[in-house]
Structures are given as C-alpha cells and as structure tokens.
Amino acid sequence: MSLGVFNESGRRRDVNFRRGALNILTGKSKTGKSAILDIVEYCLGRNTVTIPTGVISDHASWYYVIVEFSNERVLICRPNPEGASTHRAMVRTGGLDLTAPTYDELEVNADTDVLKDTLTERLRIESFTIDPEGGSLRQPFNVSVRQALFYCFQNQGEIASRDVLFHRQVENDIKTTIRDTLPYFLGAATPEQGALRRQLVATRRTLQRTQNSIRAAEADLDQQDSRVTHLIESAVSLDLLPSHAGIGAREGIRAMLESILAYRSDNASDEESEDSRRRRELAEEGRTIRARIREVDDQLELLSKLQGEQGDSQTEAQYQAERLRALDLLVPKSALIDGDVSVCPLCDQGLDHPDETVIELRSLLKALETRLEASKGVSSRRQATIERVEASRDPLVGALRENVVELDAVAQQEAAIAAGRERRERIAFLQGRVSQELERGVDIAADLTNLRNAERRYRGQLARLEDISERDDPAAALRTAIDSVSELMTDYARYLQLEGSEHYVRLDPIDLTVTVQRPGGRVPLGRMGSAENWVGYHLVAHLALHHWFATNNRPVPRFVMFDQPTQAFFPEEVVDATDDENADWEAVRRQFTLMRDVVSTLTGDLQVVVCDHANLADEWFQDAVVENWRNGVALIPTDWLGDGAG
C-alpha cells in the first residue's frame, strides 16, 4: 500500500509502505503522522471526512491510495472536500505496475458505492446478508469492505481506550454491526449457513401456518354439517331443490350447492315496468274523475242553494198575496167591478174624498200575483237543470268505482311482483352464502387429510434441516474461532507482560472487549488499570485477529494501522519520544518486537503500519522505518507552504 497528497499546483507527496512487512513512520508531533490513518480510511470509501483541518486540508487538493491484491492494483483518488462529507471518487484498476497518477489525470469517475463494490469484489467477500434479530428496527444489509475495515484501524484515541476495542465502535449501530459481522469474518458464519438459517425459518413458518390451517379445518369440520344443512333447507324452502334434497350421505353435497349457485331467477323487470306505467295512468285517470265529480257537486250545490232561496221568496210573496186578497171581503162589489173607491167599505156611505190606498193595495196584489206566476216557471226550469246535472254525476261515480277496482287489481299484482323480488333477494343472499361455503371448501375432510400429509412432510424437512444445522453449527464454529484467537491473545499478552496475562485472555464477541478469566471471575478491559494495559490489549487483540484472518484466508484487508501505540510510556505533550530518557524503552521494544514477529510469522500476509514518536536504534527497527519526519520533514513539505495553495 502506498498513499499520497496533491496540492493545487499539481505537486505530489508520496508515502510508500512495504507490502507484507512492518512499516514504521516515526517523527515528531504535528508532522501529520496521525492524518495518515484518516487519509487511508477516507480513500478507501468513507464518506465522512476526518482528516484534520489545518495545514494538510489547506494545502491538499487530492488524496490517493494504491492497494495491492494478489495480481492487480487498485488506484483510489479522492478530492479534498469542501464540506464534511463527499461521495466523489476516482477509481482505476491495473496490474502490479500501476503507479500514482499525475495531477492532470485526476478526474471524478465514480462514487463511494462503486469504490465499495470494487474492493468488496477483489477481497472476495461473498454475498452474505445480515438479518437483524426479530423486532429490530435495523434493516438487513450485505457484508462488504466497509465492515471489514473496522478491523484495520486503531487511531490514537481508540488504541488507548479501555472502553472501545474496535475502530468507530462508539458510533451509532457500529458496535452492533461489528458484532453481527464478526462471525462471518472469522469464518464461523458462511453464506451457506445463512441460506440454511433462512430455509429453517421459512420451513418453521410454513409448518406453523399448516398447523394453524389444520386447527381451523378441524374446527370448521365440526360446524360445516350444520351450515350445509341450513343452506340446503333454505334452498328447499325457496323451491331451488326438491324437498328430499340433502337427506342421506354427504355424497353430492358439492353438486347441490353448485346447482344452487347456478340458479338464475326469471327477469321480471319488463312486467314490473308495465304495471308501474298502468298504475300511473289509472291514478291520473282517478284524479281527473274526482275533479269532474267535484265540479258537478259544486254546480248542484249552487243550484240547490238558488232553488232554496227562490222557494223562500215565493212563500213570502204568497203570504203577502193572501193578506192582500183579504181586501176582497171589505171592498164593495161595485168597487171591485168598476173601481169606485168613493164609498166607505164599512158603512157603504159616500166619502168626501176617495180612498187611494185601496187602489195601491190592489195594484200591489196584482204585481205579487204576476211575480208568483213568473217564479213558478223559473223554479221548474232550475229543477230540470238540477235533475240533468245529477244524471251526469252518476256515470262519473261509476267510472270512479271502476278506476278504484282496477287500481286494486294493479296493486295486488305489484304486491305479487314484490313478493317475487323478495324471493329473488333471498335467493341472491343464499347464493352468496353458498359461494362462501364453496370457497371454504366443502370437502373439508379431504382437505384436512391433505393438510396433515403436508404437516408430516414439513416436519420431515425441518428435522433434516435442523440436523444439518446442528452438524454445522455457527455458534460452535464461532466458539472454536474465538478460542483459537484467544489462545494467541494470551501468548501475546504474556510476551508484553500485561496485567492479568498469567490467566487466560479471551476476546468477548458480544461486548466486543478483552477479558481476563481470573479464578474469582471474569475481568473486562474496562476494569483493568493503566494505559499500558489498555494499549497492550488492543495490540494483542488486533494482531491475533489478523493472524486468524490471514491463516484462514478470510476476506479482510491484509493490513492494520496503529497510531501512537507507545503513548502510554511518554508524557501527554511529548514532541519527540527519542528525547525522553525516562520512558520504559524495554516495554516499547516489546511492542514493536511483537508486531515484527507476528508479521514475520505470517510470511508476507500481513502489513502493519505504525505511526509513532518512538525511534529505536535497533537495526531491525531502523530497517522497518519507511519515513522519519524530523528536521523539517513532514507529510506536507515545507516548500508547499509558499506555493500559494490554500
């Protein structure tokens, strides 16, 4: 692996590491050593930028990393982002002669998803889906290089932590992700086991559904006879089936139910329409006749009233005339004959002046008699009119009676049609229930037999899958892998003379920490004292894991980067560890010796990159030094500071 930085002027700063070896980058503080881990992680696909702001971010325009696989190299370039995150990238693949590009060749041709897929494919990470536990809100995800890289970095804050063992373990869901993917990277969980586990889950669910169906069918079978009997009885009452239908065995039940479903009632809509039209016509005719009868009655009432009033008038006139005729008894006969009114009607003596009253009364009597005679003619004619009008009313009354009779007949016919409609509605309702029954399955007994046969088949499948799963148990394989890694950790811890290393040191795959199995119980890393132990156990755990990854050909990048592993032995504000005469140099030497020996044991299958203040004089240590950033040497060359970049 090699990496580098471009500035805005196109100049490039390269840092080359030897493959399959211990690589030590030593130097003073504030020379950019810690940024090396951030640059590598950023170039390998992290979207969030953790490269420190300042000299590096002010003078860098692009970063690059070249990673090498068995027979090819992948060049990854990432632009210096303007914000806190970016997805942009440049990816180029080639042979083992692929080298860093020139500034003019830099271009964005991919994103971090393409970058992830490229590295995942070349690491030969299999298609393996992590399914969260039931009830979890987390989504399933496929294992990729992103999870593998959690085992490849230990920055300055992580390597000396007693609470965090793995890179980014404190971030949201990262601890759970590491816990879920560790069995795969250790080889304890395989895609075949994942497929087997999903098949087991699917078979258990299918068996459970079948058993639920059996229970439902058994309960339904107890109720079916009464339901079907009621349906057939209803069909008989509606004349859809003969009266003897349904008597006897269950044979033919489905055919009877299907015949009920196939029944179609006669369409009486035309008949209903004609009756409705005739009823409307009769109703209109009845209203017309009643109106005509009311008119005739009004005329008769008026004529009768006039006739009555005239009768009263004649009676009064007759009475008055009779009173006036009494004059015939008092007036002398000569007066009656010749109209002489000069004689007193009482004494027959002559009057000095004639009595004109008698003449007036006689005139009035004549007038009354004339009027009485005339009124008799009018009354006779009016009576004739009344009789004629009454005669015209009788046919109307007869017509109204006929109208009412015909309306009653139409109403009875409509009632019969309504009864037929009610029957059709009852038939439709019955057919709906029959359809529901047929959907349930009339032959429940046969269906129940099939369900029980299916249950036995699924039980057999489940037994075979469980047997295979027990013989290839991921939990057992994980315990075996953890035991092997823990044995290496114990050996490494004893070499570093860490506290508790006289006991068995173990990797805890659940809490993701290191524990020591003391006779009095389990002691986790968080309860151990001193930064020397915390750093030491981080080195022990990661070196042991990478030893397992390499020897078992697991798809994890063959490098691990440690930032300041010797910090426990120097003051917090150390500028250059080589100036500290009070440091425990033997303890420092043991750390680097352990890293050298593990790399040597793996014969080129592991690259360890250490960024640290320490600079031992041992020949093997100096052979491992790839960069010494002292005396003005740093990641960003001093002559870049005057380039005007940034």
Could you describe the 3D structure shown?
This protein is α/β, with parallel strands linked by helices and 646 residues long. It has 17 helices and 16 strands. α16 links the parallel β14 (559-563) and β15 (607-612). It holds the Pfam family DUF3732. Keywords: Coiled coil. This is DUF3732 domain-containing protein.
Key features?
P-loop_NTPase; alpha/beta; 6-stranded antiparallel sheet; 17 helices; 646 residues; DUF3732 domain-containing protein; DUF3732; coiled coil
Q: Which radius of gyration do the C-alpha atoms yield?
A: 60 Å
| Percentage of β-strand residues | 5-15%
- Total of helices: 17
List unreliable stretches of 5+ residues: none
Q: Give the strand order, joined by hyphens, for the main sheet.
A: 2-1-4-5-6-7
Q: Give the proportion of residues in helices.
A: 40-55%
What distance separates the N and C termini?
28 Å
Please describe the biggest sheet, giving its number of strands, its sense, and whether it closes into a barrel: 6 strands, antiparallel
Supply the helix-strand structural class.
Answer: alpha/beta
Molecular shape: elongated
What's the rounded overall pLDDT mean?
82
**Subunit arrangement of the protein:** single chain
DSSP summary, beta strand count: 16
Give me the secondary-structure topology:
Elements: E1 2-6, E2 12-16, E3 22-27, H1 33-43, H2 55-59, E4 62-68, E5 73-79, E6 88-94, E7 110-111, H3 112-122, E8 129-130, E9 141-142, H4 145-148, E10 153-154, H5 156-159, H6 174-186, H7 191-237, H8 253-262, H9 269-325, H10 327-330, H11 333-338, H12 356-440, H13 444-471, H14 474-496, E11 504-508, E12 513-518, E13 521-524, H15 531-551, E14 559-563, H16 585-601, E15 607-612, H17 619-624, E16 625-629
Parallel strand pairs: 3-15, 3-16, 10-14, 14-15
Antiparallel strand pairs: 1-2, 1-4, 4-5, 5-6, 6-7, 8-9, 11-12, 12-13
Protein name: DUF3732 domain-containing protein
Keywords: Coiled coil
InterPro entries: DUF3732, P-loop_NTPase
